[in-house]
C-alpha cells in the first residue's frame, strides 16, 4: 500500500458524524504516548476483544488507548485494526465536565522510519464528556495492510501505535506488551501429602513466580461449590491482584496436570484466561471425579500423596518505561 501525502476517506459509522479522516506520514514521533506490541499475532491468538493501555497524561488530563487487535466488530471494524483514545480517571472530574480535544493516532512504519498519522480531517475538535468518554477510529488500518510485510507496520511480529493529545511535548513514555511463549521457570509441581486427612475446603500451594508475577495453585480435595462431593477442583491463581493498576490484566495459557504415579504420566487439561483483580483464578471445577481420583488402579493417589502441577505455556508481560 502506498499512501499519498494526504489520503482522505469517509468513516464507516456515525461515531465520527460522517466527517472525513485524513492519513499522512511524518518523521516526528507522537508527542505523548507510544505503545509497542512485540507479538501481535500471539495477542490476536489469545482471543482478547480489546486491550486497554496504562494511563498517560497530556494537557492536564489522563488518557489511555483502547486497541481492538482484530477490529471492533460492533462498530464496523471487522477486518481492521481499531484504536480509540479514552479519557481516564473521570471520577475525579467535577460533575458536568467537558474536555475538548484535537488528537491524532499513529502507526509506525518501521521500514521507512515514518509515522502514519490518522486524524479527523480539518482538525476537528472532539468533545469528551460523561456520555462520551472515547473517540477514535474503528477502521484505523486494514489487517491485510498491517500484515503485508512491504508496508513496514509489522516487523518480526512487532508494531508500534501512538497518540498525540493537545500540546506536542514528547514524553518518551512507553508501554510494551509481550505475549511470551514458554516463559522461564514456567512449570511448578506440588505434592499434597497425607491427602486422606485433608479436611479444609481448599488448599493453596506456595507462591511461585512466572513472567514477573506471583502465582499459586488452589486445590479443592472434595470439590468447590456445585462440585462438592463429586469432583476434584484445581485452579491457577494470580496473587496480589489488588495491587494492580486499574484495569490491568495478565494473560496466561497453561496446563493443569495430575500425576498417575503408577505410570509416571500426567492427566492434563489446558486453559487460558485474562487474569485481573475481579477474576484472579481460573481452572477446572471438574478436573476429575472423586471416584476416579480414589481408584487405586488410576495411580493418582499413592502413599497417601497427590501430585499436581501447572505448566504456563504463554503469558503476557506489560512493562512501562521512559
Structural category: mainly beta
Over the alpha carbons, how many angstroms does the gyration radius reach? 24 Å
Q: Quote the distance from N terminus to C terminus.
A: 32 Å
> Into which percent range does the helicity of residues fall?
under 10%
Largest sheet: 12 strands, mixed
Strand content: over 45%
Low-confidence parts:
1-18
The global form is elongated
Order of helices and strands: EEEHEEEEEEEEEHEEEEEEEEEEHEE
The total of helices stands at 3
How many β-strand runs? 24
Mean pLDDT: 89
InterPro entries: MATH/TRAF_dom (IPR002083), TRAF-like (IPR008974)
Domain MATH: 30-165, 185-312
Pfam family, one: MATH_2
Show the helix and strand layout.
Blueprint (H helix, E strand, L loop, with lengths): L6 E3 L11 E6 L6 E5 L2 H6 L5 E2 L3 E3 L2 E8 L11 E8 L10 E4 L1 E7 L4 E7 L5 E4 L4 E9 H4 L12 E7 L8 E8 L5 E6 L10 E2 L3 E3 L2 E8 L10 E8 L11 E11 L4 E11 L5 E9 H4 L7 E2 L2 E17 L1
Parallel strand pairs: 3-14
Antiparallel strand pairs: 1-2, 2-10, 3-13, 4-6, 5-6, 6-7, 7-12, 8-11, 9-10, 9-13, 14-24, 15-24, 16-18, 17-18, 18-19, 19-22, 20-21, 20-24, 23-24
